[in-house]
Amino acid sequence: MSDAVSKTGRWIDLANPTRFLNLASVILPWLGGLTILVLGIGLWMSIQAPDDYQQGATVKIMFIHVPFAWLSMMCYTIMTIAALGTLVWRHPLADVSAKAAAPIGAVFTALALITGSLWGKPMWGTWWVWDARLTSVFVLFLMYLGIIAFTRAMDDPAKSAKATAILTLVGFINIPIIKFSVDWWNTLHQPASVLRMGGSTIDPSLLWPLLVMAIGFTLLFFTLHIMAMRNEIWRRRVIAMRRVAARGAERRTVQ
Amino acid sequence: MTGHAGFIFASYGASIVVLALLIGWIFLDQRMQRKALQELESRGVRRRSETKTDGAS
After folding, report:
1. How confident is the model over A189-240, as pLDDT tens digits?
2. Do A156 and A236 contact (CB within 8 A), yes or no?
């Protein structure tokens, strides 16, 4: 019982934006340093990795393409959880989290599309095809753009938060479609080879650099997300303080 | 194999440029918000939630 109370107590502490800012200033230097370290090791391992017996040196594109694609979906999942946080629990940081994550997710999705295209040209002989996997990821990119527009359309963050949360929740249907598109439809894109039943089909010499790069980019995502959340909290404080200052100035002129 | 080097460099290059822009934008935003907060605080502006505790001390 007392354990449950202290747990909810801690949960509420995290919901306090000031607590979050304090926590962020402690965590960020470590998280940023770890990101640089892991990405450095990952890049070195990627350079050392042997060529694929079929794809040759272009397999090097996999080491960035797969983490970008993974992050494009993870970011949307985080935004969906944040949307639930806004609608169900009215968590004060949920909307901040969703708004801060959207541009980062859009960038990773765009990079997954760009690197995929640059990999497709030498391996498939085409930059782009409108097949299930590529189209569903392109739809995800458009969803991100729509959500970014929604979060910035209204001056009052409380108003846009609810609309954005509903849009995000509806759009989540796209995530399983992306994941299973390679199994459900006939597509040029290769089927799942890392996370699949029966184990990975990638050789360990290529799988290890890929895993380290994926961890490195995931750390980069969280570093940037916490930084962007902190910026958003500060931005809302600046707006609130300007409002207080304007009201004060009004009162003085009336008197 | 060597004929594909251009595609590899292009994908790594594009990723570095795009990520650098994203990171640069976040840092720029951070500097702008910090500056605005400092400027407001130096003018003595407080948020409503802060005025209560400030009055007590």
Report:
1. 887 777 776 677 788 888 899 999 999 999 999 999 999 999 999 999 999 8
2. no
Overall pTM surpassing 0.90 (yes/no): no
Token pair listed for A119: 């990999």
- Do the chains contact at B18 and A114, CB–CB below 8 Å? yes
Choosing among B2, B26, B27, B53, which should be mutated to test the A contact, i.e. which has the most A CBs within 10 A?
B26
B43/A245 touch (CB, cutoff 8 Å), yes or no:
yes
Is there a contact between A241 and B30 if contact means CB atoms under 8 Å apart?
A: no
User: By C-alpha distance, which of A117, A187, A105 is closest to A142?
Assistant: A105
A16-53 pLDDT, tens per residue? Answer: 888 899 999 999 999 999 999 999 999 999 988 888 87
The whole-number average pLDDT for the span B27-52 is 85
**Looking at the complex, does the CB of residue A118 fall below 8 Å from at least one CB of chain B?**
yes
Q: Determine the pLDDT at residue A32.
A: 96
Nearest to A56 among B1, B10, B22 (CB): B1
pLDDT for A128 equals 87
Instruction: Pick the residue of B22, B32, B42, B54 with the most A CBs within 10 A to test the interface with A by mutation.
Output: B22
Q: What is the DSSP string of A183-233?
A: HHS--SSPPP-SS-TT---S-HHHHHHHHHHHHHHHHHHHHHHHHHHHHHH
- Distance (Å, rounded) from C-alpha A76 to C-alpha A145? 12
